[in-house]
Amino acid sequence: MAVKTVLAAVAVVAALSGCARVGADYTSRMDARRQAYAAAAGTPVNSFHYFSLWSWEPLSDRQLAVYTRANEAWLIDLDGRCSNLEFTNHIGLTSSASEVSVKFDRVLTGPQDAPCFIKQIRPVDLKQLNAPQEGKPREVEEAPRPAK
């Protein structure tokens, strides 16, 4: 019985260490993505025209990138934490006369969640954002196949 308990404990520790590594990889990728957007973001603006939401990317519970067209993106900083922003499948933006404005409009994540006020908007230079990725080979982690 003691051997089974020890083996079970070893299996749990191995599984948890794998989860910790995956979590650390995700955290470092998200930090790098936030830094890339911050570097590509211009000076703050008061508003932007909004006709439709082409795409969006959560960067944290306080920041997201919103694409209004394939070649136009905005880095939005929120006033406080935005509930479920990193986990929701869809968002909405409030606007007035097709204009999203700082300190007036909000990001909506769901009917049960409180709206998130927009604190700052910065245009994103997509050429600068994508420049480090162009011509860069994808990193692949290689490992030998285990023997049967």
UniProtKB/TrEMBL annotation:
Signal peptide: 1-24
One matching Pfam family: DUF6491
Alphabetized InterPro entries for the sequence: DUF6491 (IPR045500)
Annotated stretches, region: Disordered: 128-148
Composition skew (Basic and acidic residues), residue ranges: 135-148
Keywords: Signal
Classification via PROSITE patterns: PROKAR_LIPOPROTEIN (PS51257)
Entry protein name: Lipoprotein
